[in-house]
Amino acid sequence: KTPEEAVIIFKDLVRENSVVTAGGCMTSIELGIVEILRSGVYNYIDRERPGITPEEVQVVQRQAFTADYFITGTNAITEKGELFNIDGNGNRVAALIYGPENVIILAGMNKVAKDVAEAVDRVHLTATPMNCVRLNKQTPCAVTGVCADCLSPDCICNQVVITRRSGIQGRIKVILIGEELGY
Question: Which residues lie closer than 8 Å to 117 by C-beta, 6 or more apart?
Answer without folding.
Answer: none
